[in-house]
Design goal:
By secondary structure, this protein is of the alpha+beta class. Helix content is 50%, strand content 14%. The chain has 15 helices and 10 strands. Strands 2-3-8-5-7-6 form a 6-stranded mixed beta barrel.
Length: 437
Amino acid sequence: MFNYYLRLALLSIKRNPILSSLMVMAIALGIGACMTTITINYLMSADPIPQKSDQLFYVQVDSWDPNDPFDEPNEPPDQLTWTEAKNFMHAKKAYRQAVMASSSAAVEPPGQDSKPFMAEIRLTSADFFAMFQTPFLYGSGWGETADQNREFVVVISRETNDKVFGGENSIGRTIKVKGNNFRVVGVLDTWIPVPKFYDLSTGQFNEPEEIFMPFLLKEELEMPQGGNTNCWKSPAEEGFKGFLNSECVNYQIWVELRDDTEKQQFMDYLNNYVNEQKAFGRFPRPLNNRLSDVMEWMEIKEVVADDAQIMLWLSFMFLLVCLLNTIGLLLAKFTGKAAEISLRRAVGASKADLFKQHLVETACIGLAGGIVGIGLALLGLQGIKALYGEFADRVTSLDVNLVILAMFLALFSSIAAGLYPTWRACSIQPASQLKDQ
């Protein structure tokens, strides 16, 4: 019977091409608007490391002004001081930990024909690569001894390796950064987490850094500050070391805690650490330490902006308006078929048969609208790319799951829109229509 209903539906659509096209376009516009905003919200809020996001925790301690919280109502700073970053690194109280900071420096490629260029640098510790499961093209990360001994070693990105070494295996070779020779121990393969969850303070959808080097070289080489720096009081001393010893926050630490026991043990360590620092006259605010996993931290940092969520709801309202228009068009179409419906009833078709027939027709219209809507969504995403450039490249790709969602949404919406017109059509009294005929 389904094949029979399908043939009837296609014949009905062909008989009224203009009306059918208007319904398809109404649904397509609503689906296109919805899927454009759904895609952006979905990719912006997707779990960037689902296999272990509930084991990675961002650490916050409240070292801020006693008279004024870092953020209302009572939020601790979103970064750490140099003192805390270094102390946590040496304490090694977590299964794995990655202390880090953002910086930049000039890179001097070998050869007279190659020009120096500025590179974004991630100062971090040895566990970074295992914690965040970074893929390697060549080599690997450095060991803990390199952190402790402040060795001049680096891991470079694939793009940097292509630029400096022509894409060759550069393990063991030398690269000159900030006037110093560094030994390459690893080359990352393409790795672009979306969003860049490990440091949301330097651009949530920026590419990872080009060079990674041991964290303590920050002090050794007086590496410049990167990202956001906040201070609640001026440094007591002048110069670079004065800044490092100040209460300014510019550093981060992630810890890997495999279960609730490890999480509680680390929180106990944080509380004890802060209480010890209070005895030295630091941490004047009440105890307010935080451990936030990846998804919690993304929510705290509002990776999906309020504007994007508002646009999502507006797009659903637009879809609703399109469906209301579709309902009106279906009413007009099915009312015009009153004589045909009455004749079918007179020759033995039941209300249930007619209801199924017309729902199949609305489903066909919905599927057509979904296909056209996906095309409109792709155009919308391309428009966003053109408008926002590189920033939008990573949040405007329509994957298979989203295509399936679009088709389901179109099918569900069209069937829902067709319920009332179909019921009205099936409620027509055959006698009155046949008598008129």
